Amino acid sequence: MTQRTRTRKAISIILGLTLVGAGFFGFGYMLFHVIEPISIKFWLIPITIFAAGAAILWDDFKSS
């Protein structure tokens, strides 16, 4: 496994936290502010964004 530089790891952590936050925000917005029923396809967007951020963070902290 290759060693990551500090700069690359910091960028990766910031990206992961941003994606996790965006996923939470999107999920919360759809949950509390949308009145009409939403198709499951649209629910998958914030869930996928959150999962991508969580995977990035998991890889960063696992390889520490």
Automatic annotation (TrEMBL):
* Sequence intervals crossing the membrane: 12-32, 38-58
Write the record's keywords in alphabetical order, separated by commas. Answer: Membrane, Transmembrane, Transmembrane helix
Q: Establish whether keyword Transmembrane helix is in the entry.
A: yes
The identity of this protein, by name, is Uncharacterized protein
Q: Which organism is it from?
A: Rhizobium ruizarguesonis
